[in-house]
Amino acid sequence: MQAAILNKQVNPSEIKNAISERMDAACFSAWVAPLSFNLANGVLELGAPNQFTADFVSMTYKNILDDVAREYGVVLRVVVENVPATVKRTTANDNNVQTYSAPVEKNIAGDFDAFIASEENAFVLSACKKMAMGAATFSPLFIYGPAGCGKSMLAGAINSSARGRVIMMTGATFVSEFARALQNRTIIAFKDYLRNCDTFILDDVQVLAGKRATCEEFLQLVVDLRNAGKNIVLTSNAAPGNLTGFDRRVQSLFASGLVADVVAPSRAVCAKIFERAGVDSKLANMIAGRVAADGHVIGGVVNKIRAYREIMGEAVNETVVEKLLADTLKKSKSPIVMVKSMCEKLGVSYEAVCGAGRARALVVARQMMMLVLKRVTNLSLAEIGEYVGGRDHATVMYALARIEKMLGTDLVMSATISEMVEEYK
Asked: How many angstroms separate the CA atoms of 295 and 129, rounded?
């Protein structure tokens, strides 16, 4: 009696709609929508045309089907229905051999020498090299860090250097290829292709967030590869525990190998990169102090410098850099711009500061500028002297000592210098 009432209250179409709301549209259309829904005596049977489809739906979407079944108070089963011989369906043929054609994707390639590692990144660089050599005892290697820190460069270096067969995909490619395999009924061939490798690399794993069916497939892939002793490399913009859109099982699996972070390039690293691009060390250090610590931005700056050298046939100097990189450089970090700005604040002309004038007010203003430059830049004393009229090392040293002594008694001067230091940091 209760089952009869239940059958009247529950409409199989409602259950079908509930399932569709919890799945990717492409996956639902490819696998669940074609199934027959038959409800009787509290048991909802999903009729599949063959055993392959029944097994795949039962395994891949088990969590979704169980949740919906509990919500509607029914027992849900996926069965192979008896299809009359006269009825033809457009389904995968279990007897056919599936084939999968991998997409033509331009993988990021490179070598480890191209990655200039600061002291903070020495550990992750060593871990990547060990993985590429096939000597790693950890898998997966999970590399995370902010955009532009070099995660993809390290993944590409492993791709180029690793022994055996390497498969490298972006997260977006994995999602689209999984959906394509479902649509074309080549999922088994797709699985075989991914597992037939020695090293598997997925760049930007965070793209899989919220895609339940795709995550389930990827989770099984990682488990299978690890059980087979294969190398797995994953990159992400966040640590496993901070990834959103993934359940605890996935986060736990990602963290089960070796988790290593990559920090943004330091000023010294940036300067080294610009020196490799043909910029002299002094100018490279200046540029490094005025660009964002982002590998993408730094790469753009390097491309501009190289393009200028190729087109104009001459090396860049500070004047060229100011014009060429006007849209990229942080204006407040330029020593010249800072000196000119301080001239306006202190009521003296830039020409006078750089001249030979010895008026007391002018000398004090010049010495205050030297102290500000010392506090907000990494310039040497000789370099500071160059920006205030070509003063030598000894003159700058004397000026700094004199101003430091005056700060103890002149509160107005102390407040003015503190204000400028905060502005030009």
From this structure: 20
Q: Which residues pair with 199 in a beta bridge?
A: 166, 231
Question: What SS3 state is found at 245?
Answer: coil
CA angle 126, 129, 135 (to 5 degrees): 105
Distance CA(28)–CA(61), nearest Å, equals: 10
CA 308 centroid distance within chain: 29
Point out which residues pair with 80 in neighbouring strands. 48
Answer whether 362's CB lies under 8 Å from 389's CB. no
What's the pLDDT band for 291 if we cut at 50, 70, 90? confident
Peptide bond before residue 140 is cis, with ω within 30 degrees of 0: yes
Domains, the chain:
2-80 (3.30.300.180), 112-261 (3.40.50.300), 267-329 (no CATH), 333-424 (1.10.1750.10)
Distance CA 376, CA 335 (A): 9
Only one residue has tokens 């989770």, namely: 219
Helices marked H in 314-359: 318-324, 335-346, 350-353
Distances (CA, A) of 258 to 48, 130, 144, 253, 254: 41, 12, 11, 11, 9
β-strands 43-48, 36-40: how paired? Answer: antiparallel
Query: In the chain, what is the greatest distance between 2 CA atoms, to the nearest angstrom?
Result: 107
Give tens-digit pLDDT for 214-264. 888 898 899 889 888 999 999 999 999 888 888 888 889 999 999 999 988
